[in-house]
Amino acid sequence: MKLKFTFLNLFLGCISLLLINTKFTSNVAAEETLEVQLTKEIKKGKFLIGLKQYLGGENDSFSNKKNISFKTDKGLLTLHSSNGIKFKANEINIMWRDIPIKNPKTIERIVFGPFASYESAKKQADTLKDRGFETTVAYPKNWEVWIPYEDDLPEFELTNKIYRKIKNSQVLPFLLNHEIPKKLEGPIRIYAAEEIKINDVNFGKNFYLIQDSYGTWTLIQKIKFDDYLEGVLPHEIGPNSPLEALKAQAVIARTWGIYNSERFNIDKYHLCISTQCQVYKPPKVKNKKVQKAIQTTSNLILKYKNQPINAFYHGSNGGISATSGESWQMQNYPYLNSMIDGSKSLNKVFKWPISNESELSNFLDFDQEKFYGSNHNLFRWDKKISSLRIKEQLIKNKLIGINNNVLSLNAIERGPSGRVTKLEIKTNKVNKSIVLEKDNIRRVLSFIPSNLFTINKLNDDLWLLKGGGFGHGVGLSQSGAIEMAELGFSYEEILNHYYRDAKLEKIEILSLSQFNN
Given 86, 375, 407, 506, which is the most exposed site by the fewest CB atoms within 10 A? Predict the structure, then answer.
């Protein structure tokens, strides 16, 4: 009897605690309906960042047994679902469920790709659009271009496939903080006045759950430009970099984010958190030097002809920068030039552009200390590559069959900086050779740090690649910017060095009170 009384008291106590710490309503005013407007958020000075993709699906590595928990240490969280559910508590639990569809539908499309980068995918999308096709750039696992399937489509030169899938179920979120789980509809907004822990990790204060184009969901963080940069700078250039280099990185990371804010339009967010965008991690500890660099340059971006520039950057250019057109299937920009990255005296030493392997070999053998950023660990590198390793990568990327063997490796075209823009790989299949172009070279042969390399055949099964740099080589070299800052250059001088004719200007951010959510 005593046990039953204790259980009853405990049950009533939990109910009263629930009533005190939670609030649930289902009738939400029409003006509170949720809508994600990507352009509007940029004008308010905020990015929508895709923190975790593919939630609820087979590739979901973030949800814990199909469950996501949101917590605060003190105050209340607010959940607002598009189907009118609004709920407050200091902990919110959401579960993914696969729900059968009464009337299954067939999804059909033509898929082009994969592409090594958004830039190359966008170029192909624009080409197809010019031919009258409705195009979409997507990122299910790699960059792809989609067009609607039709019976009478013409032959395409570019590799493509028909995607056809019968959709008979859908992944849906359910709110578990109630006796009966409540089905939610996206977009779902979750926010609080203090830091929110998601699966026990501090992330921020303002989030969405939005259904993507692949049948799963994305956890999206809404964040002010400068708060976002606090999670970018430490992982892109390093928190211990000189202050002027950090300032330069802050300007270009802000500029790059704004210019590239349309790349995930299909899934209703601006940027991802990987190297396909800018590496971003919510900062666990505030770094004063990083904060000073961001605050000093707040709202400053680089513009050309009154428009934000495509402010590419990378780890090391190996002593010579690349044009955008030799790195990706895209146009050249007037503010991104190929140049010797060092003192002006170096321009008298080298013939430029570098047009052949012999000239590049002489360049790579020159005194490293004469260049900016020569202390980067991949400023110069050697790679011994076996034919078997090349074969494995070609098979992995479905370019050859298991019975094909690699016979030769040749750079058949180079850009003005000497970088390989076309790499021919011959196999034992009659009249069969693989030609990799620009960014696709490093996508397929992922062990190559950059496209700035010479090729030396050691024997029938082994090649020596001698190269320089890490990354695509376009725009600012982070190791170069660090050395320039150590030499006393200001961040304005660093930016002018890497982005000729681009101007440093303030952007206008709307600050009306109704935009402060």
Answer: 506
